[in-house]
Design brief:
236 residues, Glutathione S-transferase Yfyf (Class Pi), Chain A, domain 2, 2 domains
Length: 236
């Protein structure tokens, strides 16, 4: 039985962190909302039609009767099942903490273009967005990615968990890709101080499943409707 992934069509967004794990593992899955009638199915689930425990928002994953929401929660479940996490509970909890840190960072990435309210257009908060992005690039990117760089060093590398790749490494790949798209000029500067994070990115990029996925039509291009958006005026 194939996994069913529910996420907005046309966006990488938060769903991409789950897609990368599924693609790397070669797991069978259906990107439901990209199928005919899939959006209706997704919205019905969110409204609680036929679900006693409806998810608040996508992404969420169905495996048989089990429905799991929230990226970190989904990856905590998938990790050991697709070979991207050990079965050891201590290690799994550590990976979950790393993924939750990624979740925090992604929220701050989103706020670079929507610092006041999600319901407002970017054009309605451009001045505030530029100010937010300036602080984000100067202070928050080095703080978050510097932390991950230190974790890799402490583990002995080349990955966050040491010699074994795990799903947060795939998420680091996505963070680097997204920041390169949104802030190409700034990325060239801060990447020089993050050699271990960039090594993880490069190793992930060369994995067979990821390489094939990124070259396929299944990989939705970055665009200005997603989390990572390129507005030249915000790029330092």
């Amino acid at each position: 039985m194939a996994y069913e992934l529910y996420y907005w069509p046309g966006l990488q967004g938060r769903g991409e962190f789950v897609r990368l794990a599924l693609e790397d593992a070669g797991a069978k899955y259906i990107d439901v909302a990209r199928e005919k009638g899939g959006m209706n199915r997704m919205m019905a689930m969110m409204k609680g039609e036929g679900e006693k425990r409806p998810p608040f928002a996508p992404p969420f994953l169905r495996n048989g009767k089990l429905v799991i929401a929230q990226v970190a929660n989904i990856l905590f479940y998938l990790g050991p099942r697709v070979g991207l996490a050990p079965k050891d509970e201590n290690a799994r909890l550590w990976l979950n903490a790393l993924q939750l840190t990624v979740t925090d960072f992604v929220k701050e990435v989103h706020d670079t273009h929507h610092p006041i309210a999600t319901g407002l257009y970017y054009e309605d908060q451009k001045a505030e967005a530029r100010q937010y992005a300036s602080h984000f690039l100067k202070e928050r990117v080095p703080k978050y990615l510097g932390y991950f760089d230190g974790v890799i060093e402490q583990s002995g590398g080349p990955y966050l968990l040491g010699r074994r790749i795990s799903y947060p490494d795939l998420s680091l790949f996505q963070l680097v890709e997204g920041l390169r798209y949104a802030f190409p000029n700034a990325a060239k500067k801060f990447e020089k101080k993050l050699p271990r994070v960039i090594e993880v990115h490069d190793r992930v990029a060369e994995r067979d499943g990821i390489k094939a996925y990124c070259a396929s039509e299944r990989r939705i291009p970055f665009n200005e409707d997603g989390i990572f958006r390129h507005y030249p005026e915000m790029d330092a």
